[in-house]
Design goal:
Elements (H helix, E strand, L loop, with lengths): L1 E4 L6 E5 L7 H6 L6 E7 H17 L3 E7 L8 H13 L7 E6 L1 H13 L5 E6 L2 H7 L4 E6 L2 E8 L4 E4 L9 H17 L2 H9 L12 H18 L14 H10 L7 H18 L7 H11 L11 H8 L5 E2 L2 E9 L2 E8 H11 L1
Parallel strand pairs: 2-9, 3-4, 3-5, 5-6, 6-9
Antiparallel strand pairs: 1-2, 7-8, 10-11, 11-12
Length: about 350
């Protein structure tokens, strides 16, 4: 399967192909004519696929500098970026060379940010290995790092040269992180695609059913919506903001939990359910939407609620979100399953919708 992200001179392809990592070197040669590659990955992914990918790149004639980082959200920092800058300089990586990010969303975001800023910007290719990265974060060019105050507060828009997706990597993905990715898949169905939403209700997208699932179809449907929105609104000036459904509360929840209590997809699932329950109670969403959303979320093994006692901490955390504009915040709501819209709200209105959603 192949999709094209049409962005003029920044256009690139998304290739979805099982068992394709062993041929990655030849695929990279089709879009990169240089010699040196900085391959950024984490300890977990390196253990499964690092040697395979590195050998494929070497066999294709590339010099490869493999840079391995610790696994997890706490790696997505400026300190990690500085470590990568220095190692790339020591390896002689120049502006005509390439970064490859091999891993999940953290590695894609961090590695993409390093590529966007190293020597004022060099090319990079995304090779996502987690479900969340394959269906969402690897496409669209949003890269960044976290600050102590919140997620993704420093970043850039830097489109990759290509995205190569091998869904067979999901076989080694822990169940927790398979479920994590399904949180973002639910988002796409909820905001854009009722048929996709119903497909997820019909097919049990759980890790124990992995051998019987057509994951490439799910990945392709989600990537189609992501690329369609990015083509319309590359820099998030309008419709692309709809992709933040559930994320405002999710980032507050993640920060409150120190990025350890919930995965990103779990926090998004809670955020989607909370905001939809609240907006439905206030007459902003069609009745029955929350029940339908919660039913799917729970069936996939995702959480749908969090403690009302933590409301104030979440509210405080979410006001550091990058979607805050002055004293207002732009929340994404559902009209119904498959139709979403943006609503500007004051702090008091956000408190009300959160209270109704708990």
């Amino acid at each position: 399967m192949r999709l094209e992200v049409n962005l003029g001179i920044n256009s690139y392809g998304i290739t979805i192909e099982k068992n394709s990592l062993k041929n990655l070197g030849e695929k990279v040669k089709s879009v990169f004519k240089g010699e040196k590659i900085a391959m950024i990955t984490d300890e977990n992914v390196n253990g499964f696929y690092g040697q395979l990918v590195e050998q494929s790149l070497v066999d294709a004639g590339f010099f490869v500098e493999k840079l391995v980082l610790p696994h997890g959200e706490k790696t997505k920092t400026l300190d990690s970026a500085i470590i990568l800058y220095n190692k790339m300089l020591a390896a002689g990586i120049s502006r005509k060379d390439l970064v490859i990010t091999l891993g999940g969303g953290v590695i894609g975001d961090l590695g993409g940010f390093v590529a966007a800023t190293y020597l004022r910007g060099i090319d990079f290719i995304q090779v996502p290995t987690s479900l969340l990265a394959q269906i969402d974060s690897s496409v669209g060019g949003k890269v960044g790092i976290d600050l102590p105050a919140g997620k993704n507060l420093v970043g850039a828009f830097h489109q990759p040269k290509a995205v190569f997706i091998d869904s067979s990597t999901l076989d080694t993905l822990p169940t927790k992180f398979f479920i994590d990715g399904m949180g973002e898949a639910v988002k796409y169905g909820a905001i854009f695609d009722k048929d996709l939403f119903e497909l997820m209700k019909k097919n049990s997208y759980r890790k124990e059913n992995f051998d019987f699932l057509d994951m490439d179809e799910l990945i392709e449907r989600c990537c189609f919506w992501k690329k369609t929105v990015v083509e319309e609104d590359e820099k998030e000036a309008g419709r692309r903001a709809l992709l933040n459904f559930g994320h405002t509360f999710a980032h507050g929840i993640e920060k409150m939990e120190g990025y350890e209590g919930y995965t990103h997809g779990e926090a998004v699932a809670i955020g989607m359910c909370t905001i939809t329950k609240g907006s439905e109670a206030l007459g902003l969403t069609k009745q029955g939407t929350y029940d339908s959303l919660k039913e799917l979320v729970v069936s996939l093994g995702l959480p749908s609620v969090f403690s009302a006692e933590k409301k104030e901490a979440v509210l405080e955390a979410l006001w550091y979100d990058k979607k805050v504009v002055g004293s207002h915040i732009n929340l994404i709501l559902l009209k119904e399953i498959g139709i979403s819209y943006m609503q500007e709200m004051t702090k008091e209105q956000v408190e009300e919708i959160l209270s109704k959603g708990l």
